[in-house]
Structures are given as structure tokens and as C-alpha cells.
């Protein structure tokens, strides 16, 4: 049975492994997953947002990726800006009052959710943060400790907590790298672009002892050639030691075959495969 094609393909032109937006006429690699984020106008998902998409299509895509249908409008005059600021202050005050009155009585999840939304909005925090393991563990830790918990000062964070954590992270990285002499490691590399059109090649390593981030290379799109990718990957392999790298997983669809052939020519023992997650996103 042939799977039904996602309805959002009707808003783009299908170019096999790529698509061209019908609104902004820009083309990108990927499939329905990336089309939705492009049309929804949600930044931070390794694809540029569409600046010409109609509002109804934008809202439809936003809902499709699990977002809440809300329209953010910038102030058109200084009076509107002041009104917005006053509203924000009023909202903050209301939330604080609600916290004092409701949190001390029966539990009200909506109050806490509003405080979280305010934290994210006021501090311009990425929405992805709430799904990270570290954030979830922190929230759970505060809940387990109870209302007596007091946040440390920024000075305590700067001079004590973060330096202590850095020592543990360095020990963790050193332990994992030492294990590569026994088990070897798998390198994982990907290319992504931020909202400012800067391209990055990231390289991480995985082994039975754990995974670590190794390096990030900022490059222009014009420089992302087969030879350039090969040189970057080779520099990382040589730094680690070719005898410790057993596999490479990459997501470069266009340059995969030629990059693989060049790297295998230099490192015959290397096993190179495509990224499965990237392949799923391309569907």
C-alpha cells in the first residue's frame, strides 16, 4: 500500500531530495518535516523560515508541528510599544499575584505553565530547552526539594557551581576518549544552517562509554564541496588517530558518494553510512 503524501507538499514544488517553496521560491533539502517548519516560521530547526507565506498557511503549519496558534504582532508606534510594555508588566504582576494566591492553596498547573511561558518569552530562550534532559531534571529536582529551595546567585554560579561542573565534564570527556583505544569510536557529522544563513559542520563521537561533541566548523555554503568535507573529516580522524575510528555517519545527501569514496581511499578500514534520522526527515 502506497503511503499518502503529506498535504504540505501542495505548498512546495517537489525536486526529488529537495523542495522549492511556492511562496518565497527558495529551495531546500528535505521533506515534509522541514517543509512544515519552513512554513510555520519557527526558528532554530536548521531551516530558514518563509517570509512570504500567507497567514492561514503559516498557522496551519504551526499547528501541524504541535505549536499553539498565536499571532505575534510588533508595535507600529511608540505608543503601542509603551502599551505593550505596560501590558507585559501588568501580566507579570498578575502572574506573581496568582502564584502567591493559588500556589499556596490548591495546585493550579496553568499558573506554573504561564510562569514558564513568561520565562521563555522575557529571556528569549529557545523553546527546545523545555525538552532537554537537563531542564527536565532541574525542574524535577526543584519539585523534589520543595518550596524551601532558593536559587543560587549569579556569583555563586560563576565562581563555584559552573567551574565545578566543568571539572566533571572534562573528566567525563577524558574517560570516554581513553576508552577509544579499546573499543574505537563512531564519528557523526552533519551540516546545518542558522537563521543568519551561516553554515556549520558539526562532528561528534560515540562509543560504548558515551557520546561527546568534538568540533564545529563554520563555513560558507560555497565552500561545502566534496574535497572540503573530506579535509575536515580527515583532520578530525587524524587528530583522534585513524586506528581509533571505526565508523563515520554523515548526512550529506548531495556529496555522500564522492565523500565516502575519498575517505575510504585514505582510511580503508573506515565504514561509512548515511544518517538514518536525516533519511527519515527527507521522506
TrEMBL record:
Q: Could you tell me which PROSITE patterns the record lists for this protein? A: ZF_BED
**Gene Ontology MF term list:** DNA binding; zinc ion binding
The UniProt keywords, alphabetically, are: Metal-binding, Zinc, Zinc-finger
InterPro entries found in the cross-reference section: DUF659, Znf_BED
* UniProt cross-references to Pfam families, sorted A to Z: DUF659 (PF04937)
Enumerate the spans annotated as BED-type domain: 3-57
* Stored PANTHER family: HAT TRANSPOSON SUPERFAMILY PROTEIN, OSJNBA0013A04.12 PROTEIN
Official protein name in the record: BED-type domain-containing protein
* Source organism: Quercus lobata (Valley oak)
High-level lineage: Eukaryota, Viridiplantae, Streptophyta, Embryophyta, Tracheophyta
Amino acid at each position: 500500500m502506497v503511503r499518502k503524501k503529506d498535504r504540505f507538499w501542495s505548498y512546495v514544488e517537489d525536486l526529488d531530495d529537495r523542495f522549492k517553496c511556492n511562496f518565497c521560491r527558495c529551495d531546500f533539502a528535505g521533506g515534509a518535516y522541514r517543509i512544515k517548519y519552513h512554513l510555520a516560521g519557527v526558528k532554530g530547526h536548521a531551516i530558514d523560515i518563509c517570509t512570504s507565506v500567507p497567514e492561514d498557511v503559516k498557522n496551519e503549519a504551526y499547528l501541524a508541528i504541535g505549536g499553539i496558534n498565536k499571532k505575534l504582532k510588533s508595535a507600529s508606534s511608540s505608543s503601542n510599544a509603551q502599551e505593550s510594555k505596560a501590558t507585559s508588566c501588568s501580566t507579570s504582576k498578575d502572574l506573581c499575584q496568582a502564584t502567591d494566591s493559588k500556589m499556596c492553596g490548591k495546585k493550579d498547573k496553568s499558573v506554573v505553565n504561564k510562569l514558564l511561558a513568561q520565562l521563555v518569552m522575557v529571556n528569549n530562550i529557545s523553546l527546545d530547552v523545555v525538552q532537554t534532559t537537563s531542564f527536565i531534571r532541574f525542574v524535577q529536582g526543584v519539585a523534589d526539594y520543595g518550596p524551601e529551595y532558593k536559587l543560587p546567585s549569579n556569583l555563586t554560579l560563576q565562581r563555584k557551581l559552573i567551574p565545578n561542573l566543568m571539572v566533571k565534564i572534562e573528566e567525563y570527556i577524558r574517560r570516554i576518549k581513553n576508552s577509544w583505544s579499546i573499543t574505537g569510536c563512531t564519528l557523526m557529522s552533519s551540516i546545518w544552517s542558522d537563521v543568519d544563513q551561516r553554515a556549520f559542520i558539526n562532528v561528534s563521537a560515540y562509543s560504548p562509554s558515551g557520546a561527546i561533541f568534538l568540533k564545529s566548523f563554520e563555513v560558507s555554503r560555497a565552500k561545502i564541496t566534496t574535497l572540503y568535507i573530506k579535509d575536515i573529516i580527515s583532520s578530525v580522524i587524524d587528530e583522534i588517530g585513524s586506528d581509533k575510528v571505526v565508523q563515520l555517519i554523515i548526512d550529506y545527501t548531495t556529496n555522500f558518494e564522492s565523500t565516502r569514496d575519498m575517505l575510504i581511499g585514505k582510511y580503508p578500514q573506515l565504514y561509512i553510512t548515511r544518517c538514518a534520522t536525516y533519511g527519515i526527515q527527507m521522506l
